[in-house]
Amino acid sequence: MERAKKPTAIPVSPVAPAPQVSISDDNSRVTASLPTGESVEILLYGATVISWKSAGGKENLFLSSKAYLDGSKAVRGGIPLVFPLFGPPKADHPTGHLGQHGFARSSRWEYLGKSTSESSKLPNSSGDSSVKLDFGLSDNMLSDSKWDYQFGLTYSVTLSSEDLETSLVVRNTGSRNYEFQVLFHSYFKVEDISNVRVTGLEKASFKDKVQGGKQIEATSEAITIDSEVDRIYTSGPEQPVAVLESGKGRYQIDRDMLPDVVVWNPWEDKSKSMADLGPADAYHGFICVEAGSVTKWNTLEAGDSWEGGQRIKSL
User: Fold this and answer.
1) pTM for the full model?
2) Relative to the CA of 285, which of 65, 106, 139, 174 has its CA 20 to 30 Å away?
3) How crowded is residue 162: how many other Cβ atoms within 10 Å of its Cβ?
C-alpha cells in the first residue's frame, strides 16, 4: 500500500572538488593541484619548488635543462631556499665553514603534511581557497652541517588560484643565540630577457656585485637587463616588486619581513662557466628576483622564532 504522503527527500549538496596532493613513488617530491588547474611541485631535496603552473598549464618558474634533480647538488632553477648564509662563507663568522648559500637548499627535508591555508600576513591573501604544504628541517636531521647550533625550520608552500606563497619559520631550539640570513632564490620564467623590466626598486640603493660590491645610489629607473646583473637592493618589505615583459605585468612579489631584493641574471659569458645551466641560451629565459634578508645578520635569541615570506602573483 502506498502512503498518502511520502517523506520529502532531503537534498544532498554536491561535494566541491578538493585540492589533490600526491607523493612520488620514490618519495622524492610532492605535487599539489587545485580543481581550477593550478599546480605546484616540490622536491624534498632542499624543499625546492621546481614547478608552479597557472590554470591552463602555463609554467611560471624556470628550471635548467641541466639541473640536478637526484639530490646530488642544489637545484638550478625553481625556488631554492637559502639559509643560514647568503653567498660565499665569511671566514670570521660561525657560518664560515658552510658552503655557499648554506645547507637548506642541499638537505633532504621532511614532508609534514597538507592543510587549508591559514590567514596570511601578506596583503590580499587568498585565504581558504588554497592548499598549504609544510616541510621541516632540524639540526638532528643533518649528518654534518658544520654549524654548531640547534634549530628547527618549517617551510610552507601555499598554492591558490591567485598566487603562490612561500614562508619560513626559523626557531632557535638551543640555549645560544645565533645569526642567520635567508632568501628565496626565485627563478622566474620569461620569454625574452631583453623585453623585461623590474619595477618597484627605483628608490632603493643597491650593492653591485658585478662592480666588486660598489654601493650605488637609487637611479629612479626601472631595471633592464642587457648584460650580467647581480645586485642587492634594500627597499623595505612594504614595496611590491613587479616583473614586466613587453610592457605588461608578468609577476608581482609582495614581501613580509624580507627587506632585501636580489636581482640576478648571469648573461652569456658567465652562463658558459655554469655547468648545470642549460640550454646554452638559458639566460634569455629567466630573471631572478629574490626576496630575502641578507644585507645584515638576523639575531635569533634562544627559544625565539622568526618568520618571513613572499607572495607571488602570476599576472
Assistant:
1) 0.92
2) 106
3) 18
